[in-house]
Amino acid sequence: MRLNRIVPKWIKNYQRQWLHADMTAALVSGMLLVPQGLAYALLAGLPPHVGLYASLIPLIAYATFGSSSAMSVGPAAVLSLMTVSALSPLAAVGSPEYITAAIMLTLLSGVFLFAMGLFKLGALSNLLSHPVINGFVSGAAALIIVGQLPAILGVEADGETASVKLFHVIENLPQAHIPTMAFGIATAILLITSRLWLPITLFRLGVPKQIARLSARLMPMLLVLCAIGLVHWFKLEDKLVIVGNIPSGLPKLILPGFDGGLIYQLLLPALIIALLGFVESLSIAQSLAARRGERLNADGELLGLGAANITSAISGGLPVAGSFSRTAVNAEAGAVSPLAGVLAALLMIPILLYLTDLFSKLPLTVLAAIIIVAAAGLFDFRGFIHNWRYDRTDGIAMACTFAGVLLFGVEVGIALGIGLSFATLIWRSSRPHIAVVGRVPGTEHFRNVLRHDVETQSDLLFLRIDESLFFNNISAVEDRLLSELKRHPATRELVLILSSVSRIDGTALERLHQINKDLRSRDIRLHMAEVKGPVLDRLSRSKLLEKLTGRIFLSAYIAELALLHGEDPAAAADTAT
Amino acid sequence: MRLNRIVPKWIKNYQRQWLHADMTAALVSGMLLVPQGLAYALLAGLPPHVGLYASLIPLIAYATFGSSSAMSVGPAAVLSLMTVSALSPLAAVGSPEYITAAIMLTLLSGVFLFAMGLFKLGALSNLLSHPVINGFVSGAAALIIVGQLPAILGVEADGETASVKLFHVIENLPQAHIPTMAFGIATAILLITSRLWLPITLFRLGVPKQIARLSARLMPMLLVLCAIGLVHWFKLEDKLVIVGNIPSGLPKLILPGFDGGLIYQLLLPALIIALLGFVESLSIAQSLAARRGERLNADGELLGLGAANITSAISGGLPVAGSFSRTAVNAEAGAVSPLAGVLAALLMIPILLYLTDLFSKLPLTVLAAIIIVAAAGLFDFRGFIHNWRYDRTDGIAMACTFAGVLLFGVEVGIALGIGLSFATLIWRSSRPHIAVVGRVPGTEHFRNVLRHDVETQSDLLFLRIDESLFFNNISAVEDRLLSELKRHPATRELVLILSSVSRIDGTALERLHQINKDLRSRDIRLHMAEVKGPVLDRLSRSKLLEKLTGRIFLSAYIAELALLHGEDPAAAADTAT
Question: What Pfam family is a match for this entry (chains A, B) (predicted)?
Answer without folding.
Answer: Sulfate_transp
